[in-house]
Amino acid sequence: MTGIAGVDEAGRGPIIGPMVVCGVLVDPSDLPVLQEMGVKDSKALSPKRRTELSRGIRKLVKRVAVRRVTASRIDLLRNRGTTLNEIEVREFALILKTLRPEIAYLDAADVNPDRFRDSVLKRTQLPPGKLRVVSEHRADSKYVVVSAASVVAKVERDATIEVLHRKYGDFGSGYPSDPKTVEFVRGVVDRGEGLPDFVRATWAPVIAMMEHKPGRRTSGNP
User: Fold this and answer.
1) DSSP reduced 3-state for 69
2) 117 and 198 together in one domain
3) What is the sign, positive or negative, of the torsion defined by CA atoms of 26, 30, 32, 36?
């Protein structure tokens, strides 16, 4: 399959819920159509607009690949010594192996975008010269194909969070900057219920809440 791919993630930093990595494969001739649709970095769009655009993106592009890394999976890997950047490298590479584009644009997770590019390329195990990769910080605001991936990834993560809201109540966005989220996790800890598997136990804010409580589920690096 040929085309241009964009890959981005949603949910790298929260203490609740999965990280969702998305890739979209687009025919080069359809890039202006994405622009005309108003596709941009998902953070610059309202939830309603993201949902509308996600539907349009899915109809337009050649293929969409989505991978979800659950909170419990992230904890397991981090407790084995795998960094979050390494987790992203694996997932980005798997997306590219699925889409098999000619050119791919990545929103770099590493402080060194070239290192991120090289790590992802190595993980794909594709023959040298088979794929050209552009890896940059803030690629979701520079390249519309990455913006499209960011929109779909964010909509997919939000849908997962909404399912958890219906089951466990409104705990907010899942990010440690959200007072609702912090209150929810602190309440679970204070009641001694044990952390549910959708809470990232290896995140520093969660570790801090668990520090003085016996029987915490796990621990790890902040």
Assistant:
1) strand
2) no
3) negative
Report how many domains make up the chain: 2
Do 32 and 142 lie in one domain? The reply is yes
Q: Are residues 110 and 14 in the same domain?
A: yes
The helix/strand/coil state of 9 is strand
Cα 218 from chain centroid?
23
Give the residue from 62, 34, 58, 39 showing the smallest Cα distance to 49: 39
Which residue has better confidence, 100 or 215? 100
- Both 81 and 137 in a single domain? yes
Judge whether 88 and 12 are in contact, CB under 8 Å. Answer: yes
Give the pLDDT score at 127: 82
pLDDT tens string 145-194: 999 999 999 999 999 999 999 999 999 999 999 999 999 999 999 999 88
**Integer angstrom CA distances of residue 177 from 15, 70, 84, 124:** 10, 20, 19, 35
Say whether pLDDT at 66 is over 90: yes
* Cα separation, 31 vs 33, whole angstroms: 5
The mean predicted confidence, pLDDT, of the chain is: 94
Q: Which domain holds residue 199?
A: 167-210
**CATH code assigned at 190:** 1.10.10.460
Judge if 187 and 78 occupy the same domain.
no
